[in-house]
């Protein structure tokens, strides 16, 4: 039978009549399928914050509407896993074109190993324009005189407090000193008949992501005028926790857990607990506002600046791609910074955008939750994580010691043991800095 | 003819041996090489540091803690799994002719084939200090609720329990096969000599099952030393988790590789783990050989 004389159905039936033909047909289809995407540019957007996925999807949809050949894959996973995949992907160069969301301290290693692409002139011009960004953010996106990232949002801490619980406890305003944090927490804690806390007065960070525990400890320590890491005149660093600020901070944790019993390590914690009414107050970044809007829209709460200052950790978009895909990736990073997208980000996700020449006031006015993040005193101080290679290792090691210390009831009354533990933490951190040639005098 | 057969055998084995060489031996060799270097995974520069990584390792409190925890878990799982699986296998073997025999075997083997992640998530809920059914059940007997996954000692027990639960099905299955292959003549002889079932089990079956026990012991110990997902899910550093209470060797390796960017150092940990596993395997071979000689 000549093929020319048979119908399409007969031909298909013939073609798929044997396993070999099926195999060849499948291979052919696979090849054809492989040809089609080759014409499109596929960009993966990697985020360490799952709540950012809708934002990136919005930006991707806008760009795809303008240029259908662009394909975006939004992959937002928890931060610690995100950091691991970035390490694997950039070191092996196997992940294709990427737009990667990273904080400058994390990006530092990749920049020093030339694994991230320098921004083209138009992007660099946009980023270095002080009308768009404050110098702090420009510096965070730059390295060695060049621009490598596009600033997007920042993590900034403030106090979240449940106004209903405050009212019930006879508290009319947020705590203004760290001492007040503890006295307030005592009043706010709800207990069962046996005296065990059922609602924590102050959800302190006692568990969870290793580095996060150290960052939260640093925020509290900052209120006592201390810093977990301090830069010396030689530009190098030292871990500086074995001091009055460190001792007061650790003691406050221990006293709250073991003496005042306003919180325990195993109690529900963080944003989830706050949204469910299982804690009266806690310190967190602004993304919680967006989270509350979605999960607990009826929750009555307010935010307030911390007594002395807080962390300001910028997050930038970096690119790992070549040629046309690199251009498309930078286009994505720039589109994410369009005013309407940044307003959408603030309104719907809650992270604070870094671009300054955008009018965010309608969102801020409509949601009083932002008050604690934008209405702070003029002398409100900020600190950030240093952009040094071993920052994550140091913070994880500090956190490891802290999580081991928090459950120890005996420590709460033992000032000598607290001091000794802090010296131990300091020595361990300084040994890491020394190993990396970064230990200051 | 023999030569042709030999060539055919070599050719037939080549693909499998090639794959084995590629996916097993090369990575092991590369790990050994990396353990003597300092490498941050990103740089092309890998300076040779000799045994420095190993020297640092044995002064590192986190590594020592990981090694201690992993050893406790591995031997804890062994101590629970071997006697309980032997006993359960004996009970199932006694009911081999029962119409429920297949059901017993399937039920016991199920935990071993269930995907680890959902299983560990379920156990995480069971161990939950506030909402977990374990504390609720203990409450009926007037026992105070425990913070199972927050207490450093209790959380180790939780992981041992989870690993044993998973390992049990496999061990029982291997023991059942062992029981089925026991020479009936010896058991009948013991019975004729007046031995009770208990005595036959203790003095005939258990000694005859020694090779099986050795095999199960080593497999269990090796699995115990490689414990990772159970500790990661029950007590890892993810948000809301107990936070680093149970640091195991594999977890520590991952953290050193991909969070601290110290691949050479992590490779030296892998070498230590490999040596431990190798020693345990050699012990097994030695004991089996001695057994062979004595027979």
Description:
The complex is a heterodimer of chains A (441) and B (295). Chain A is α+β, with helices and mostly antiparallel strands. Chain A has two domains: 38-152 and 314-363, Periplasmic binding protein-like II (D-Maltodextrin-Binding Protein, domain 2, 3-Layer(aba) Sandwich); 156-312 and 380-435, 3-Layer(aba) Sandwich (D-Maltodextrin-Binding Protein, domain 2), CATH 3.40.190.10. Chain A has helices at 8-15, 19-39, 53-66, 79-92, 104-112, 121-128, 135-141, 163-168, 178-188, 210-223, 244-259, 270-275, 287-295, 323-336, 339-348, 361-366, 371-374, 391-405, 415-435; strands at residues 41-47, 70-76, 97-102, 142-143, 146-147, 149-162, 190-191, 197-199, 229-231, 237-239, 281-285, 301-304, 309-320, 352-353, 381-383. In chain A, the strands form four sheets. In chain A, strands 1, 2, 3, 6, 11, 12, 13, 14 and 15 form a nine-stranded mixed β-sheet that branches. In chain A, strands 4-5 form a two-stranded antiparallel sheet. In chain A, a hairpin with a 5-residue loop joins strand 9 (229-231) and strand 10. Chain A starts with 7 loop residues before the first helix and ends in a 6-residue tail after the last helix. Chain B has a single domain (52-294), classed as MetI-like (MetI-like fold), CATH 1.10.3720.10. Chain B is globular, with a radius of gyration of 23 Å. The model of chain B has no long low-confidence stretch (mean pLDDT 87). Classes of the chains: A alpha+beta (441), B mainly alpha (295). The A-B interface holds A 78, 80, 83-84, 87-88, 90-91, 109-110, 113, 115, 206-210, 212-213, 264-270, 272, 389-390, 392-393, 396-397, 399-400, 403-404, 407 and B 40-43, 62, 129-130, 147, 149-152, 237-245, 247, 254-255, 257-262.
CATH architecture descriptor of chain B: Orthogonal Bundle
Shape of chain A: globular
Largest interface: A-B, 38 and 30 residues
Mean pLDDT of chain B: 87
CATH class annotation of the largest domain in chain A: Alpha Beta
CATH homologous superfamily caption of the largest domain in chain A: Periplasmic binding protein-like II
For the sheet with most strands of chain B, the description reads: none
Q: Can you tell me the residue ranges of chain B where pLDDT is under 50 for at least 5 consecutive residues?
A: none
Per DSSP, the total helix count of chain B is 13
Silhouette of chain B = globular
Whole-Å distance between the termini of chain A? 90 Å
- Would you tell me the structural class of the helices and strands of chain A? alpha+beta
Q: Characterize the biggest β-sheet of chain A.
A: 9 strands, mixed
What is the tally of beta strands of chain A?
Answer: 15
Overall average residue pLDDT of chain A = 89
- Summed up, the helix count of chain A is 19
